[in-house]
Each structure stands twice: as structure tokens, then as C-alpha cells.
Amino acid sequence: MDTSGKPRVVLGVSGGIAAYKACELLRRLTESGHDVRVVPTASALNFVGEATWSALSGNPVATGVWDSVHEVPHVRIGQEADLVVVAPATADTLARAAHGLADDLLTNTLLTARCPVVFAPAMHTEMWEHPATAENVATLRRRGAVVIEPAVGRLTGKDTGKGRLPDPAEIFEVCRRVLARGASRERDLAGRHVVISAGGTREPLDPVRFLGNRSSGRQGYALARTAVARGARVTLVAANTALPDPAGADVVRVGTAAQLREAVRGAAADADVVVMAAAVADFRPAHYAQGKIKKREGRDPEPIALVRNPDILAELSSVRSRPGQVVVGFAAETDDVLANGRAKLARKGCDLLVVNEVGEDRTFGSEENEAVVLGADGSETPVPRGPKEDLADTVWDRVVRILDKE
Fold first, then answer.
1. pLDDT along the chain (406 residues), means of 10
2. Domain named Flavoprotein: which ranges (predicted)?
């Protein structure tokens, strides 16, 4: 960190069509108080010019190892950084970084950096799925770098598939969490697959109505973002959310409790951790009306009969998909929070239960949360009111301790 107190970030930009999106990431970094130095490759300058990077960052742009050579930029830039993020990271950049090549300023910077490094890949699906790229990504992750999974969507031309650069706002969130953890904090979920459910299920009454709840999915998404920042491979099962996909997470969208159950159980087959943060409906209508239920003058509506939905958390806890799998549940309570939470923890059989008090103006839809993390070992970890990412990190801290006992 420099004398001004601003975290120093190096934004590496490699030569892909998504280079223009890095301008938005740069804006978010500078406007949030980071001192950003942009290091574009020669190819990147074919997409966005040097003047743009300099104007947006407020810093001179070095493009080669021979620029301002008296300052030894190929060594100094990496040495002074608190974070290096490469967005977009092409297949070529990933390969050169994995093999320790140093044929331009960006790869020299990556070799000299002793701070956290984040790669946000962007390329065609075939390039991302090629065995060479897969091995390079595995190498970088093994060395401690955070390599964000690319998004699925429209690529260049008419192609669609996995390989799209994640939303710059979500890449920024990953960078912010990585910086918050600091260089001394290892990526303690590296090599782990975590499955997280988020949002609220909806049980249809008729073609236009449903039984639902107030869950926004923000806590589940915070768990996904923080897990990515800690190096995990993340599958997010999202029920009826309106939030942008967290960078680096594979998102599976569902609607009902039955769909969520199927998606979570399928993803959990090879998962190290399953976190049930979604608000799953306990009941569903016994009968679905094929047409809209009509209002009839002078007549009260027919009572709606309900039947129970499967208890997904209890199922996951009782039949673990693999030895040592950690299962975490969430419990939203309105009264006797700890007592009800302890009873639910024993009933569900999970390893951890995050218990919070909810209400119309509390927790649901809020950017903040307050909870107690209860452990099957009798432990209690209170988390004071604060950003949902703070609660998420506390949950992962507890999970890592359980995993380390394997």
C-alpha cells in the first residue's frame, strides 16, 4: 500500500475483444479508492488505446520493459502491488503465466508480484475447454492464483458458450474480497468444490400465482463471491433471484423446491461443502389449477390444501455424497432464535446452522445481516450486524476448520 493509504492494484489487460470491458473494472477500482496502474499487452492496445487507460487510471501507462527503463518497471510494478488482476486473461496469457515466461511487461510483472493474483479469463469455448488451457489453469490455481471461471453467454460473432468475461462489477467484488483477505491469507478453499443454494423457491398455484417468500438471494450470492475469492470452485443454485451472476460461479437457475432439490443433489455428488442458504418452501399446493383461479361474486374462494415438500437439508445431512462432506444450513427465526436454532440443528443433522432473526424489515433484501453460527460440536459464533460478505467469511472460516480435521 502506498503512502496515501490507497491499495495499489495492477490491472493487466491482454488482447481479447473483451478488453473494452476492463474500462468498467478500472472505473470501479479507481472510484472505490484504489491506485491503479494499467499494464496492457501489445495486442490489447489494438482494442483499447493507451490514452484511454491513462485517462481513466490517472497514471501513466507502461507498455514495454524498455519504457522508463531507469525505474526498472518490469520489477518495480509487481513488487509494489497489493493486487494484480488480469482481465481479460486470454488463453495465451494464461499459458505464458503458467510456464513462467517473461517476454513482455505484464508477464514480468506477474513473475515479480508477491501479492494475490486474480485472472479473469475470456476466450472461445473450445479454447477454454482445451486440455492445455485446463492444465495451465490448474497450475496457476495450485500456485495460489485465483482463476475465475468464465461466464456463459454470447461470444464474438454468432458463437455462444462458456468463455465470456464475467460482469466487471462482479470481477470487482472478487478483487475487493481478495484484497480484504490480504496477501498473508492463503486461498484456503483452493481445490474444493462448494455448492450453494440461494434465493427463495416459488410453488405455483395456477399459471399466474404462486406461494413464495421474501428472500432476495443476497446472502447466498455473498457466500458464492467469498468462496471464489478463497479459491473454491463454486456451483450456485439460484431460485428466483434478480441478481447478476457472481463472477467465477457456475449458476444453475431453478424455480420450485423440487427443482432446487434435484439441482443441489446433482451438484453435491462431488462437492466438499454444501451450503443451503436458500429459503425453501416447506409446503406446496396439493393441486395445481391449469387455468387462472377466478374470483366469483358472492362466493368465498375454495381453501388451498397444502402438502409438505421434501426436507432437502435433512436429506443432504443424512446421506452424504462423499466422506467428509460438510453440510451447512440456514434457519430464519422470528422468536426464541437460539433455542429454535439448536433444536433445528439437532433435527436436521448438519454440521453448522446459521441462525438469524428475520422480519419484514430485517435481513430479507438487506445488504447486511446478523446471525449466530451454531456448530454440531456445541459451539456458537456470533456475527454482529454488518455486510453479508462478513457473515459469509465467518461461515467459510468455520467450514475450513472442519475440513482441516479430515
1. 76 95 97 95 94 94 64 72 96 97 93 94 95 96 91 84 93 92 73 96 94 91 94 95 92 96 96 96 92 85 91 95 94 83 94 82 69 94 92 96 87
2. 8-176
Q: Which sign, positive or negative, has the C-alpha torsion 386, 364, 346, 259?
A: negative
Annotated binding site: 282, 292, 310-313, 330, 344, 348
Backbone torsions φ then ψ of 14, nearest 5 degrees: -105, 170
Tell me what pLDDT residue 334 has.
77
Q: Do 307 and 203 contact (CB within 8 A), yes or no?
A: no
User: Residue 361's pLDDT is what?
Assistant: 52
Q: Look up residue 100 and give its amino acid.
A: G
Q: What is the pLDDT of residue 4?
A: 63
| Predicted pLDDT of residue 75 | 76
Which letter does DSSP use for residue 166 in this model? P
Under 8 Å between Cβ of 36 and 27: no
Q: Which residues belong to the active site? A: 213
Distance CA 163, CA 130 (A): 12
pLDDT score recorded for residue 70? 46
Pairing of strands 117-121, 83-89: parallel
Binding site members for CTP: 282, 292, 310-313, 330, 344, 348
What is the rounded distance in angstroms from the CA atom of residue 87 to the CA atom of residue 17?
11
pLDDT of residue 26: 97
8-state DSSP, 114: -
Domains of the chain: 8-181 (3.40.50.1950), 193-291+299-403 (3.40.50.10300)
CB 296 within 8 A of CB 347: no
Which pLDDT belongs to residue 186? 66
Beta carbons of 10 and 39 less than 8 angstroms apart: yes
Alpha-carbon gap, residue 93 to 109, rounded angstroms: 12
pLDDT for 245 equals 92
Residue 323: how many other CB atoms lie within 10 Å? 6
> 446472502: which residue's cell?
219
Tally helices (H) and strands (E) across the chain: 13, 19
Cell of 170: 462482479
